[in-house]
Amino acid sequence: MDTTIARKTLEDMRNRLTARVGRIEAHIRRDGKPLDQDSEEALSERTDDAVLDGLDVQERKELQDIDHALSRIAQGQYHVCSKCGSTIGAERLTALPYTTVCVHCG
Ligand SMILES: [Zn+2]
Q: How far is the CA of 90 from the centre of ligand 1 (A)?
């Protein structure tokens, strides 16, 4: 498997997430006032604070997983299961780009 593609996929995911998390943080800081840039999209995502908080935590977790996967790529460990050390299949990595364990350990 070409990690260039995996890295691109992960970076795209990361960009989307950071853009979203950034908007959510902006909502909290500005008390729900949407950003000027993409206000229509921001408006559609407006919801109550509890849901925003939940999204924030979950997306931050996802962001950590993506960062972890990117550092595993950088270290040449992307295909290596973090539990048993065997190779994680390309199909699994395509389906779950930021998994750290093989099909047997996951
Ligand atoms: Zn394993």
A: 14
